[in-house]
Amino acid sequence: MSETEIKNKPIPFKIRLLSTLRSILDFITSIFFKLYYGTEGNKVPPITDDILKQPAVEVARKIRNRQISSVEVVEACIRRIKDINPIVNCFVENRFELALQEAKKADEVIRSGSKSVDQLLQEKPFLGVPFTTKDCIAVKGLHQTSGVVLRKDFVAEEDAKVISLLRENGAIIIGLTNVPELCMWWESYNNIYGRTSNPYNNTRIVGGSSGGEGCIQAAAGSCFGIGSDIGGSIRMPSYFNGIFGHKPSRKIVSNDGQYPCAATELQEDFLCIGPMTRHAIDLKPILKIISGENSKKLKLDEPVDVGKMKIFYQFSNNAPMASNVDPEIITAMKKVIEYFELKYKIVGKEKNIKLLERSSPIWFGTMKSPIPFGSYIIQDYSYCRIYREIIKSLLGLSGNTLIGLFTSLLDSKIVDLNSEKYKNYRSLRDKLEEIFKEMLGDNGIFIYPTHPTTAPYHNQPMLRPMNFMYTAIINSLGFPATTVPLGLSSEGLPIGIQVIANHNNDKLCLAVAEELEKAFGGWIEPQK
């Protein structure tokens, strides 16, 4: 069947009905949330330390050249975190004293002159630069709760592999940021540290599971961040907070030291760790470090000729349980397509990949684990215990979040991963992956919404649970993807897109991110 025939094929009545009901529900509930929260929310105060507005690579250069000290930068981050955290609650644990000690040592190395500026650039490119990571990636001596009350006293004994690699390259970890319970929801809230709010409007969510990290980067509380992504956990928070976030190709960055760890080989394929930054230029050098020996597979130092790319795009996944894509997001996407056509004479090709309508069953089916979700978060886990905790949660007496308990309930059934049903899901996944591989080739990118709406109000995701499928399906396929900010909506909330490339072609995503940052302005400081 040709693409024209696919586009003109009548939509089944059941699908049209579900889509209509979905739109009506979104409309009604949006009015309710707007009346409840109001149209205005608080923003974070303006950034007073100019060094925090600059790219991490520029901060590193200034530290190496003694234009500013590492201690000064760490102190600027500490001040900023103390300014913003009462408003947004993104930062959950610090190692400020240790970070300052490490900063002093970095400054001493630079002042000693034992190594030239060029040597420092080659050996420790991020010497003295402070960064943060989410509370599910192990940092020695800090808690690693993943938002689970049962783990509130757990302290990591070793750094995760990515943290170790960054520290070997001179970066200084200053603390941890907030996540949802067990990192398995797209609003960052748990019963240890509470809820994180959006720096552009604190009535809105920051996304999840790297929500605290997206927030602290947007608000300039550290020079760069590290997140993880199994269904959009880097890209959604980056999108909602107006920053850049990159999900690497499958199995490029080590997941060692992350909790929970992958329970199946398929989950290991989906799960990945990547950079979150205010500036696109920082993505590539950070990715080069955290991918270790695997960075050779990415050929990040090879130049990318943007003018020779092929561009494909799709405005919606057309899934009946997902919200309609906001017109402002579609307009932003069209401007990107027009930009490439005007500057590089590249005519983008609109696609209608029908299998994207089945993103939800593909992701859920291939994500299924033999370990029930509830066993991670509920003591003495059992089916009856889930109901007991739901009642306690409604009364404000449970250590679990309501969404965590509902997820436990839905995931309580033990399944046979070798059954025909789950083999079929994997077959659909493989078919969709082949469609993308054939389309993208060696020089193609796919422009796609990161999310169908701007940042929802707090708790609103519970009424729009399938909207994260725009990012989740890309995890299923293992492709690299970068969220790129494209300004603010009429409500003053970030909007943007995700740029997807073929396996190990991360450099194309990063090159496009840098190109679009220059064209559209990139990160915009949230201000009162």
TrEMBL record:
<dbReference type="GO" id="GO:0012505">
    <property type="term" value="C:endomembrane system"/>
</dbReference>
<protein>
    <recommendedName>
        <fullName>Amidase domain-containing protein</fullName>
    </recommendedName>
</protein>
<dbReference type="InterPro" id="IPR052739">
    <property type="entry name" value="FAAH2"/>
</dbReference>
<feature type="active site" description="Charge relay system">
    <location>
        <position position="209"/>
    </location>
</feature>
<dbReference type="Pfam" id="PF01425">
    <property type="entry name" value="Amidase"/>
</dbReference>
<feature type="active site" description="Acyl-ester intermediate">
    <location>
        <position position="233"/>
    </location>
</feature>
<dbReference type="InterPro" id="IPR023631">
    <property type="entry name" value="Amidase_dom"/>
</dbReference>
<feature type="domain" description="Amidase">
    <location>
        <begin position="72"/>
        <end position="510"/>
    </location>
</feature>
<feature type="active site" description="Charge relay system">
    <location>
        <position position="134"/>
    </location>
</feature>
<dbReference type="InterPro" id="IPR036928">
    <property type="entry name" value="AS_sf"/>
</dbReference>
